[in-house]
Design brief:
Residues 275-413 form the Flavodoxin-like domain. In the N-terminal section; belongs to the zinc metallo-hydrolase group 3 family. Its cofactor is FMN. This is Flavodoxin/nitric oxide synthase. There is one protein chain. With 431 residues, this protein is α/β, with parallel strands linked by helices. It has 2 domains: 19-261, Metallo-beta-lactamase, Chain A (4-Layer Sandwich); 266-430, Flavodoxin domain (Rossmann fold, 3-Layer(aba) Sandwich). It has helices at residues 72-80, 98-101, 104-110, 123-130, 204-215, 219-229, 250-261, 264-268, 285-299, 314-323, 340-347, 371-381, 399-417, 427-430, and strands at 19-22, 25-27, 30-32, 37-38, 42-43, 48-50, 53-57, 60-64, 88-92, 115-119, 141-143, 148-150, 155-160, 170-174, 179-183, 236-239, 274-279, 303-308, 326-330, 358-365, 391-394. α6 packs antiparallel against α7 (250-261) and α9 (285-299) packs across α13 (399-417). The chain is elongated, with a radius of gyration of 26 Å. The N and C termini lie far apart (71 Å). The protein binds MU-OXO-diiron (FEO). The site of MU-OXO-diiron (FEO) has 8 residues, from α2. MU-OXO-diiron binds at residues 95, 97, 99-100, 165, 184, 240-241.
Length: 431
């Protein structure tokens, strides 16, 4: 058997049938329309897909990515509808997360002659995944940007695109069909059995939402990847989740560029060092501290924004945080803890790059005052620097204590203005 017919009907994904994208190029993935939460944190109103692709050349077949383990039966049925296992010469893994490698061990058993192709950052991850032994050593080919593998009349070329969104990520380009197998990049959690973007209704929300939660923390890596991808002739983008992008695929590159560069701060200009102060206050004491901190920081040359979390939504604050140089969080201590809105905001910051930003904590307290130290620990956990020791004031601040708050603000602003964000001493290092 060399070339089994496409078995899709009406271009839609049937339970056990591959979908033809081009002659000899098939989608052999799986649909998961009932999923409502992905990876514990992502909402999926339309479920998702685990996209896997099969490329047939004159000298062998390549399988690009697999599916989540629970969907292996669908994947193998679709694969078998267009190829035999002994034809598979190459298995490419663009990214080793389990939703794309769940069926890999069984595929390797069924196609033992196939050579694994993974990125140069993936071997350690692959070993952890497959647990090789002396009896069953691991064989693979680590590939980098520009490396190619031939399928006879078709060529797969690799692009190293790390951190999108795991360190091991790569993209694979089918030269003769101008098709980019992009992994999670340009993907989205949107399940529609019609499979192709021009047939799948409006999934822009899912596309942007996926970017915001998966790619946003890696904006600089997105820009590096775009430098590799944008010069390529491009007729199809075939991601690992969501619709296959064959209608005007460059729009999705443009959108990624927009999402990776266009922040509100950049649009309006942001030349001054910026400090955003968030606070909650039970009796107005932490609020008075926040106001004095603002005064001091402004005296030292920072542009300061002050927000009472009691009156705001989390998402716009996340955008503010992303464009700020420094953050200060003020919380009273209630039952030995900082208050919930502070934690809500701090726990929402994992979607942005915080490394190198400065952080500070302050608050009024009645008995024990643990909140300040807890907030500082969390900021350090987010890889922020905490250059000024946290400021705690028992109950109502005196005039002298408000002067301390101004000094605190001044010191924090000076740390930004000095331009030494990456080198300031963290007070924790001195303890
Ligand atoms: Fe879809 Fe990062 O796995």
């Amino acid at each position: 058997m060399t070339h089994l017919p496409s078995t899709s009907r009406n271009g839609m994904a049937e339970a056990t049938e591959a979908v033809e994208i081009r002659p000899g190029l098939h989608w052999i993935g799986a649909l998961d329309p009932g999923l409502r939460t992905f990876d514990i944190i992502l909402r999926t109103a339309n479920g998702t897909t685990y996209n896997s692709y099969l490329v047939r050349g004159s000298d062998g077949v390549a399988v690009i990515d697999t599916v989540k383990a629970e969907f292996a039966d669908d994947f193998f049925a679709r694969l078998e509808s267009v190829a035999r296992y002994d034809e598979i010469k190459v298995i490419v893994l663009n990214h080793l997360e389990p939703d794309h490698t769940g069926a890999l061990p069984e595929l390797m058993r069924r196609a033992p002659q196939a050579r694994l192709h993974i990125s140069t950052r993936a071997p350690a991850m692959l070993k952890a995944l497959l647990k090789p032994s002396e009896e069953h050593p691991l064989e693979y080919q680590a590939v980098d940007t520009g490396d190619e593998v031939s399928l006879g009349d078709r060529t797969l070329r690799f692009l190293h695109t790390p951190f999108l969104h795991w360190p091991d990520t790569q993209c694979t380009y089918l030269v003769e069909e101008a098709t980019l197998f992009s992994g999670d990049v340009f993907g989205c959690h949107h399940c529609d059995s019609r499979m192709f973007n021009e047939q799948c209704g409006d999934f822009r929300f899912a596309f942007d939402y996926y970017y915001a939660h998966i790619m946003r923390p890696f904006k600089t890596h997105v820009m590096d990847a775009l430098k590799l991808i944008e010069p390529l002739p491009l007729q199809i983008i075939a991601p690992t989740h969501g619709p296959i992008l064959r209608d005007r695929p460059r729009r999705y590159l443009t959108r990624y560029r927009e999402l990776s560069t266009s922040t509100f701060a950049e649009r309006i200009g942001n030349e001054e060092p910026t400090l955003v102060v968030f606070y909650m206050s039970s009796y107005g004491n932490t609020a008075r501290m926040a106001e004095s901190i603002r005064t001091g920081a402004e005296e030292a040359g920072a542009r300061v924004s002050l927000y009472d979390l009691e009156g705001g939504e989390i998402q716009p604050f996340v955008d503010l945080v992303e464009s700020a140089d420094a953050l200060a969080f003020g919380s009273p201590t209630i039952n030995g803890d900082a208050v919930k809105p502070i934690w809500d905001l701090l726990s929402s910051l994992a979607v942005i790059e915080l490394k190198g930003k400065l952080g500070a904590a302050f608050g009024s307290y009645g008995w024990t005052g643990e909140a300040v130290r807890m907030i500082e620990d969390r900021m350090r956990g987010l890889k922020m620097r905490v250059p000024v020791a946290g400021l705690r004031i028992k109950l109502i601040p005196t005039d002298e204590e408000l002067a301390e708050c101004r000094d605190f603000g001044r010191a924090l602003a000076s740390a930004i203005v000095s331009g030494e964000k990456g080198r300031v001493i963290d007070f924790a290092d001195l303890g």
